[in-house]
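It is worth pausing here to work through a concrete case rather than discussing structure prediction in the abstract. The textbook approach is simple: state the sequence, then state the predicted structure, then interpret. We follow exactly that order.
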Amino acid sequence: MSEIVAIAKNTSCLGIGGVRLAYATEYTNITAVTVGTGGEITALTMATPAQWGKLSFDDEDNQAYYNEEGELVGNRVVSNGTGFMLFNGLTQAKIEAANQAKACCGLVIIWFHYSGIVRVQGIDVDPTDDSWSFSKRLPRIVPNVLSDTGENAERMEYNVTHQGLQFSPTTTLDEAAIEAL
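Step two, the predicted structure:
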C-alpha cells in the first residue's frame, strides 16, 4: 500500500551538502544484509573479510557528491544514482587503481556525507517488508585520468552510476565497522 508520509521542516543549521569519503567492494563480496526497522542497514556479511577499498578523495573545492534522481519508467519510478570523486595529482598507482576500478562489473559503495548521514549505493531495501536485493543496475566506476591545463591540477576522477528500484538506504555502520568486515 502506498501513502504520503508527513515530513517535518528541518530546524538544524547544518545544511551542508556533499560527501567526504566512500568505501567500495564488488557486490559478490556481500552474501547477506541485515535490515533494521525502517529500512536502515545494520549489518553486512562478507564472503571474504577485508574486501573494502577506502576511497579518500580530495574535496577542497567541495565537488564530491552522491545524488539520486527519480525517473518514471513506464509506470514505475526508479532511482538513478550518480556519484563523483576527485583525486588530485597523478601517479602510476592511481592509474593502476583506475584500471582496476573500471574492471569491476558491479559494486556496493558506502557514501559518508558531510551532514553525517551514511548511504549504501547498490543495495535496495523494499519499504513494504524491509527485504533487500542488489540494485537493478549495479554501480560501476567510470574513471577519468586528466592532465588538464596549466591553470588546473592534473587529477583522476571517478564517476559512479547505478539504477535502483528504491533510493539508497542509510546504514548504522561507521568507518571502524566497515573496516572490520
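Step three, interpretation. Residues 92-102 form the longest helix (11 residues). Residues 22-180 form one domain.
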